[in-house]
Amino acid sequence: MLMRNPTGRRSRRLGVVSALASVCLLLGAVPAVAIDADVGSLPASRYPIAVPYVDVAHARILDGARRVSVAGLQGTVTHLWKVDGGYVLGRKTPRGNRSQARTGVYDLVYVTSDGTRRVITSYWRGPTPGPEDAGYIALEIGRPAMVVARSGTQIVFSTQAWSQYIETRVYSLATGTTTARRTFGRAPLLLGFADGPDGQDGQVLVSNGKAGVRWWNLQSNTLTTVLDSPDEFEDVSAEAADLTAGQYAVRASDDYGVQGIPPATTPDWAVSQDPAAQVCNNAECGWLVGPWSPDDTKTMSTGGVSDNGLDTAKHVVHRASDGHPLLNVGMRSSVASVWETNATLLFVKHGSTRALYQVVRCTLAGHCATVGPARATGTPYVLVTRRNS
């Protein structure tokens, strides 16, 4: 297991000058595409979505040839994960008082492949909400609210009450029980979950402000430092990770880049922090990395999005080994993105109005097309969140 505190990797400058200069020079040579709010000029794709997704209009999960009904499920589905034996849905529920209407009350629901449902928790510390009239969740790059374990049999998430963090739990989907719990100083970012081959014990990679990045060892309920702050005046944290790639996105006071998770020492490349092209999310601003491609050879950085997710987003696909840019997409009003295959990405974006949503597919060659119909007052599809452990 990866549990070592890296000597001399606490707050490096990540090769900012040379790496960033290389990225800037190369961006002009890669395929580039600009998509504004009017997607009517794009061709319609002939291909169905190749990843699991929730078809909101027909209240069902589509996963290849499988169809699983979620008809009658109250509230609004905001997230989908594929797990062992079925799926986990993140849901914004109609519960709560008037003061909670803006932030929302979220829960998690396990849906088996035959459609059986079970509420996992009624107090999920879910995502940052988007605009009240958007019917969707604000851009959440690098801010995972739940993580599926490598085995697919366990999940880890945090709970809250009245918007206050309570604890972080590990939950067994097979038994329907909480198998581990811990209260951190504040709600941690959940970066990855490496459990054993039998779906037991394991470690959760967490990032928690000045506490740095640590492995939470479930069997002993102890913490092992992976990356810490060099002094009391500087925070070092990880904002996204992919355990199968063995990489995470590390932010220091004035650095941001992709590094190998210790004991790995590669890769180590910088991500642009141009203040004119930032993502603001959960009061944090700057370019954000993630997600990684299914084969772990590529990742994406996103910037240029306002705090309501309605301005032009700049998505840059990078080679994960060295940051070399492969595709530059400027997409106005994009609110979500996911890798469909190793060569195609899916974006959910606003159409000509805030209340109109459209799914767009782009290839690494820069060819984009609409997928399915546009839909008013909410996204037509909730796309699966890829397992990153």
Largest sheet: 5 strands, mixed
Distance between the termini: 13 Å
Q: What's the total helix number?
A: 1
Low-confidence spans: pLDDT under 50, at least 5 residues? 1-28, 129-142, 276-284
Helix fraction bin: under 10%
Q: What is the residue-mean pLDDT, rounded to a whole number?
A: 79
CATH topology: Methylamine Dehydrogenase, Chain H
**How many whole angstroms does the radius of gyration measure?**
20 Å
Task: Give the full name of the CATH homologous superfamily.
Answer: YVTN repeat-like/Quinoprotein amine dehydrogenase
**Class by SSE composition:** mainly beta
What's the architecture, going by CATH?
7 Propeller
Can you walk me through this structure?
It is a single chain. The protein has 389 residues and is mostly beta strands. It has a single domain (16-383), classed as YVTN repeat-like/Quinoprotein amine dehydrogenase (Methylamine Dehydrogenase, Chain H, 7 Propeller), CATH 2.130.10.10. 3% of the residues lie in helices and 46% in strands. The protein has one helix spanning 16-27; strands spanning 32-35, 53-55, 60-63, 66-69, 76-83, 86-93, 105-112, 117-124, 146-148, 154-161, 164-172, 177-182, 189-194, 203-207, 213-217, 222-227, 237-242, 247-251, 256-260, 268-270, 279-281, 284-286, 288-292, 298-303, 312-319, 325-332, 334-339, 344-350, 356-363, 368-376, 381-383. The strands form eight sheets. A five-stranded mixed sheet has the order 1-26-25-24-23, covered by helices on one side. A four-stranded antiparallel sheet has the order 4-3-2-31, with no helix packed on it. It has a four-stranded antiparallel sheet with strand order 5-6-7-8, with no helix packed on it. A hairpin with a 5-residue loop joins strand 28 and strand 29. The two termini are 13 Å apart.
